[in-house]
Amino acid sequence: MIIAIDGPAASGKGTLGKRLAAHYHFRHLDTGVIYRAVAKALLDAGADPADEERAIAAALELDPEKFGHPLLKTRPIGEAASVVSTFPKVREALLTFQRQFASEPPGAVLDGRDIGTVICPHADVKIFVEADPVVRARRRTLEARARGEEADEAVVLADILKRDERDRNRPVAPLKAAADAHVLDNSHLDIEAGLKAAIAIVEAARLRPDRA
Ligand code: DC
Question: Residue 57 in contact with residue 22, Cβ under 8 Å?
């Protein structure tokens, strides 16, 4: 079974993906870290994330061993990831890895921006997670502070809005809900309630007659 989760920055899709995968004993891939790892490789080399040729080269040389690096979650890398992810050839270079991950048993949960639309258009379940930008900014600020980083909520909100705008309006694989996605608004749900709502969506999909 493949569960595709998409949504904007800081919508809670990563936490939900991780928890849902643990619930079903599936594997989990936060695809944002892949774009973040490409962005980090560029920044580490002193390159501009808007340098398309270098971004493509970094994507082709990507080492999945580095996906756990703690700095990947920081704000500047998220912003740079949003820039490198606009290049079609960067996306193309990362496609096979994601599809391969999705296809391996016993099942997988992938979260990102284009999982239900491009990476796994035939996923068994698609969930599009939304949350009010102000709520997302609040959560992301608290997360950053918990990691010991300084974070100004107004700056985080401006950053989230800018990233939403870029991710939604890029010509290739823009952030959008697939036509057959279930929209889950978690603005007023805590982690447990969001997980419960997602499990209900998955269970309903498992009972669909076309899956029998
Ligand atoms: O989910 P995140 O904040 O870690 O993602 C960082 C950036 O990577 C995001 O702004 C856009 C890009 N991204 C993407 O284009 N497609 C995905 N499937 C996941 C992330």
Answer: no
